[in-house]
Amino acid sequence: MSNLLDKAGWAVGTGLGIGYMPIAPATWASGAAVLVYGFSSLAEDSLGFFLLCGLAGLVGVWACQTLTSESDHDPHHAVWDEFAGMWVTCLLLPKTLPWLAVAFVVFRVLDILKPFPIRRFEALPGGLGIMADDLAAGVVGAVALNVVYRVFF
Q1: Is the peptide bond prior to 98 cis by the omega test (within 30 degrees of 0)?
Q2: How far apart are CA 48 and CA 63, in angstroms?
Q3: Distance between CA 92 and CA 49 in Å, rounded?
Q4: Domain residue limits, the chain
Q5: Helix orientation angle between 80-90 and 25-39, rounded to the nearest 10 degrees
Q6: 97-107 pLDDT, tens per residue?
Q7: CB-based contacts of 109-113 (< 8 A; 24+ apart in sequence)
Q8: Which stretch of 16-20, 28-32, 90-94, 136-140 has the lowest confidence by average pLDDT?
Q9: What does the alpha-carbon distance between residue 21 and residue 139 come to, in Å, rounded to a whole number?
Q10: Whose CB among 59, 93, 127, 132 lies 3.0–4.6 Å from 64's, allowing a Cys bridge?
């Protein structure tokens, strides 16, 4: 059973291996997450997608924890945090190419720069720390983009 759980943790945590891309695995994972969002029928139901984001966050804490080691507390191949954070950024936004592109750019900028207070979440232990900063970046991105969308469009 443990071996099966280890394999499941690896599959989820690495985004089915996307985390092993030789260049910019987090960016590739964010791009894959946007594609999944763009083609997902569940995303049409805001409540369902909100619940999916919550589940992705919870499962991600476990999955990313399975990838950590004593010498590497935030391995580069752990990219499920990008999936969950990107999906949170897309919450309540239209599923159009311009909005998906803007959400992708906003999330990547927030994830890379980690402005205050996002960076503080990295200090949390294990899988929680891996997931929390990206989820925080997703929340900041979602709030900002939804304000722009609701006020100007």
Answers
A1: no
A2: 22
A3: 9
A4: 2-15+24-152
A5: 50
A6: 999 999 999 99
A7: 110/137, 110/140, 110/141, 111/26, 111/30, 111/82, 111/85, 111/137
A8: 90-94
A9: 26
A10: 127
For residues 34-65, one letter each, b for 16 or more C-beta atoms within 10 angstroms of the residue's C-beta and e for the rest, the string is bebbeebeebeeeeebeebbeebbebbbbbbb
Instruction: Reply yes or no on whether the pLDDT at 63 is more than 70.
Output: yes
Contact between residue 117 and residue 61 where contact means Cβ atoms under 8 Å apart: no
Q: How far apart are the first and last CA of the chain?
A: 51
Cα 153 vs. chain centroid, distance in angstroms?
Answer: 26
Asked whether the predicted pLDDT for residue 133 surpasses 70, the reply is: yes
Three-state helix/strand/coil letters over 124-145: CCHHHHHHHHHHHHHHHHHHHH
Helix (H), strand (E) at residue 23: none
Alpha-carbon distance of 88 to 53, in angstroms, equals 6
Q: Please report, as a single letter, which amino acid is at residue 126.
A: G
